[in-house]
Amino acid sequence: MPTYKLTYFDLRARGECVRMMAAIGGIELEEVRVAFDEWPDYLKSKEAPFDALPVLEVDGVKVPQTLAILRYFAREAGYAGPDNLTAAVADALADQYADFVMAFLPWHIDALYDSTYVPARAKHFPYFEAALKKSSTGWYAGTPDITHADVFIASSLEWLSRMDKHRDVIFEGFPLMEAHYRKFFAHPKLEKYLAERPDAVF
Ligand SMILES: N[C@@H](CCC(=O)N[C@@H](CS)C(=O)NCC(=O)O)C(=O)O
């Protein structure tokens, strides 16, 4: 069994999908949480291959990029979809959500609220609502259980809802996304993790 070490900030944000996938997949994860005041020195040390976090270390091999790490864990734990084509559909949904995040960058959400965030959400959320409308299971890729798309979208929506000043109406007009969000956070394999995880600003 390889050893898995995740290095991220003391935040949920981009790291949380990886932690959740590990919890659902029964993957034991060692964690290093880098404090913000440690980051400049950490950056100089060149420990992070692409000068950003998260980074997963697997038996000494470093894997940066959130979605690469998430997909790796999903494949390892059998949650990448039942076949290659379904995995591609899940990949596309996760990538589309990542495009949405990049459109406004969550830490600029207040400055870009009306000019960029609201239009980006109005453009992207219908794609996810439509995917759920097509699904017979309530999971994004229509799979019997979750895939990495469900983990990425739900965990990123939690991150977003922590930052959106109008979080109470975030799902207005998108009832299937809201139902998916509730279904995801009620997943039996997440219960223990959610009860024990540390709090964070976002
Ligand atoms: N596309 C990358 C983005 C990584 C990224 O921007 N990480 C942020 C934290 S969420 C970071 O390390 N910021 C520190 C910096 O850029 O100096 C991923 O998804 O992993």
Domain module tally? 2
Structural class based on helices, strands and sheet pairing: alpha+beta
Number of helices: 8
Query: Which regions contain 5 or more consecutive residues with pLDDT less than 50?
Result: none
Measure the end-to-end span.
Answer: 32 Å
Shape: globular
Listing every helix as H and every strand as E from the N terminus to the C terminus, the arrangement reads EHEHEEHHHHHH
CATH topology tier name of the largest domain? Glutathione S-transferase Yfyf (Class Pi), Chain A, domain 2
- Major β-sheet annotation: 4 strands, mixed
Bound molecules: glutathione
> How many whole angstroms does the radius of gyration measure?
17 Å
Helix content: 40-55%
* Average pLDDT metric: 97
Pfam family, one: GST_C_3
Organism: Pristionchus pacificus (Parasitic nematode worm)
GO molecular function, one term: glutathione transferase activity
Protein name: Glutathione S-transferase
Short description:
By secondary structure, this protein is an alpha+beta fold. Helix content is 51%, strand content 10%.
Detailed description of the structure:
The structure is a single chain. The chain has 202 residues and is α+β, with helices and mostly antiparallel strands. The protein folds into two domains: 4-77 and 190-196, Glutaredoxin; 84-187, Up-down Bundle (Glutathione S-transferase Yfyf (Class Pi), Chain A, domain 2), CATH 1.20.1050. Helices cover 51% and strands 10% of the residues. It has eight helices and four strands, in the order βαβαββαααααα. It has helices at residues 16-25, 39-44, 66-77, 84-104, 113-134, 148-163, 175-185, 191-196, and strands at 4-9, 29-34, 55-58, 61-64. The chain has a four-stranded mixed sheet with strand order 2-1-3-4, covered by helices on one side. β1, α1 (16-25) and β2 (29-34) form a beta-alpha-beta unit. It is globular. The model has no long low-confidence stretch (mean pLDDT 97). Bound molecules: glutathione. Glutathione binds next to loops.
